[in-house]
């Protein structure tokens, strides 16, 4: 396609117009200025190289063809190809350009928004505010009783008598603070803090590590003297200095007269590890809150239950495993007592059976010593009095259910009644039996008068209202809590990594530069922490340089004397 500002016309051209068609000109040709340029375009008179096309001979006396350059004040028209097909091609090209511009604009907008979002999330005050908010919610979760029925909060936080003048049950149940650690507010703050940690790692910590890993030699003594610590060593060499630095644990690199050394690079990686560990902890806590099961059950001695019957999901990610089909049998429940008679410890002998009735595990659990099987943990948390086996006048034994009686405080009291008359009558009388634990039973007659105390293990008879009563056995019940928590391994791993990376982060990243300037070595260095220790280390290091120089000089003198 010709230049948009000029056409090159060859004269004479009229005789060759049928061989070289001219480009179409516009209907109204723009005004033009002619500038004649002579050039040596020597032509041959024959037909060689023309492919059989006859050329007109150059007029005699000229020997040269004259070229004429014509400049237009306006751009020439675009050539049309294929009888109008060029217009469609031009339209398609313009459409592609427009689409490309839109795509580039959209991509630029996404990049700007991403950069702005990362800058906002990596803001340190924002991250600190998030951590304080999470800590406040955790403290609030320890004050508010968790997992209770709504009626409990209706009673404890009534609207007619708000706590602190404004806190009612609506403030607790509406945001889900009755299950604080799985509430949307708490989980949302965890997600926001995790996003802040990842943004800070991407925008700050990773670039710092990349810079720290580079070998940066300094080739100017002035730049070295600007460091936190700088000194000049006469009659020294960077080779001697490098040997001493390696003895202090530095990685040493030399390039010509320049030296670079560093140590403690792991301290630069540690903040990234701290962020990752915190993300692991929050991910594990989130999984625990949304993917676990929990249940509790009171089982009398000798009975059993199926794990899946007592477990309740806690979140949307809770999926029941096959181990929920396992059956638990309470072989025995017993307690130990202090000399004062108070309960010191209680035990449950448990057996686990699979679907085929095969015992797969047996263990006696106690407080702080649970049973773990297939991801399910069974804790010993409570005890109760299930039944009392009694003989009356040699008949029985009868199993009398023991009912818990409400007392002020944490003391437990259980009671039952042995009827002596027709139990179908409206006014039943009998022998009352009370117990605070499984080791002694207090008996009262029909009038409510104290008769005596018997231990179930003694089996000594006692006569009450003409009836001989024997306490055969006291059957206790065990209180068990069951839980599955898939987030615990992740949380433990996160805390372990957090402790390790926190300790590593206290390692100082120290850098030293040196330059051989004639017979003098200019040395300088800096560190990111422990600056006083770094200064003391540098002084000790420099004290060894003269010693090494003296040793080298003695070696040289001995070699010279030997020769």
UniProtKB/TrEMBL annotation:
BP GO annotations: cytochrome complex assembly
Q: Show where the ResB-like domain sits.
A: 126-389, 439-538
Q: Could you tell me the keywords of this UniProt record? A: Cytochrome c-type biogenesis, Membrane, Transmembrane, Transmembrane helix
Region feature Disordered, mapped onto this chain? 12-36, 76-99
Protein localization: Membrane
Q: How does it sit in the membrane?
A: Multi-pass membrane protein
| Highest taxon of source | Eukaryota
Q: Which residues cross the membrane?
A: 120-144, 185-204, 265-287
**Which Pfam families does the entry link to?**
ResB
One Gene Ontology term, aspect cellular component: membrane
**Could you tell me which PANTHER family the record lists for this protein?**
CYTOCHROME C BIOGENESIS PROTEIN CCS1, CHLOROPLASTIC
Q: What is this protein called?
A: ResB-like domain-containing protein
Q: Which organism is it from?
A: Oryza sativa subsp. indica
């Amino acid at each position: 396609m010709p230049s948009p500002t000029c056409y090159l016309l060859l004269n004479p051209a009229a005789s060759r117009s049928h061989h070289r068609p001219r480009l179409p000109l516009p209907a109204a040709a723009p005004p033009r200025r002619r500038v004649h340029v002579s050039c040596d375009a020597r032509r041959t008179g024959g037909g060689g190289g023309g492919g059989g096309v006859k050329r007109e001979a150059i007029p005699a006396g000229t020997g040269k063809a004259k070229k004429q350059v014509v400049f237009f004040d306006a751009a020439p028209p675009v050539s049309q190809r294929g009888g109008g097909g060029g217009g469609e091609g031009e339209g398609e090209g313009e459409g592609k350009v427009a689409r490309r511009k839109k795509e580039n604009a959209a991509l630029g907008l996404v990049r700007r928004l991403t950069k702005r979002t990362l800058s906002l999330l990596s803001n340190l005050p924002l991250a600190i505010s998030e951590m304080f908010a999470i800590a406040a919610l955790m403290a609030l979760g320890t004050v508010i009783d968790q997992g209770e029925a709504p009626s409990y909060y209706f009673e404890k936080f009534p609207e007619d008598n708000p706590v602190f003048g404004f806190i009612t049950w609506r403030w607790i149940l509406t945001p889900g603070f009755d299950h604080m650690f799985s509430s949307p507010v708490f989980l949302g703050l965890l997600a926001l803090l995790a996003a802040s940690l990842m943004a800070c790692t991407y925008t700050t910590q990773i670039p710092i590590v990349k810079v720290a890993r580079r070998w940066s030699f300094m080739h100017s003594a002035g730049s070295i003297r600007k460091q936190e610590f700088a000194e000049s060593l006469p009659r020294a060499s960077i080779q001697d200095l490098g040997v001493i630095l390696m003895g202090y644990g530095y990685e040493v690199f030399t390039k010509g007269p320049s030296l670079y050394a560093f140590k403690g690079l792991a301290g630069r990686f540690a903040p990234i590890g701290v962020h990752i560990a915190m993300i692991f902890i929050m991910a594990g806590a989130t999984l625990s809150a949304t993917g676990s099961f929990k249940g509790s059950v009171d089982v009398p001695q000798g009975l059993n239950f199926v794990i899946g019957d007592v477990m309740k999901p806690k979140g949307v990610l809770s999926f029941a495993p096959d181990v929920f089909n396992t059956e638990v049998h309470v072989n025995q429940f017993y307690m130990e007592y202090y000399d004062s008679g108070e309960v010191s410890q209680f035990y449950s002998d448990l057996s686990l059976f699979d679907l085929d009735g095969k015992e797969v595990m047996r263990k006696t659990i106690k407080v702080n010593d649970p049973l773990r099987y297939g991801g399910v943990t069974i804790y010993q948390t409570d005890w109760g009095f299930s039944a009392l086996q009694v003989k009356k006048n040699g008949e029985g034994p009868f199993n009398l259910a023991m009912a818990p009686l409400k007392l002020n405080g944490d003391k437990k009291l259980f009671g039952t009644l042995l009827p002596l008359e027709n139990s179908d009558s409206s006014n039943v009388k009998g022998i009352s039996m009370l117990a605070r634990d499984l080791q002694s039973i207090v008996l009262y007659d029909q009038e409510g008068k104290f008769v005596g105390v018997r231990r179930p293990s003694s089996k000594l008879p006692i006569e009450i209202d003409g009836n001989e009563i024997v306490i055969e056995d006291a059957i206790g019940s065990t209180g068990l809590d069951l839980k599955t928590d898939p987030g615990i391994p992740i949380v433990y791993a996160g805390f372990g990594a957090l402790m390790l990376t926190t300790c590593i982060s206290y390692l100082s990243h120290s850098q030293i530069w040196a330059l051989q300037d004639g017979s003098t070595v200019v040395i300088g260095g800096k560190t990111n922490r422990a600056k006083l220790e770094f200064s003391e280390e540098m002084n000790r290091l420099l004290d060894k340089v003269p010693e090494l120089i003296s040793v080298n000089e003695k070696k040289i003198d001995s070699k010279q004397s030997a020769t």
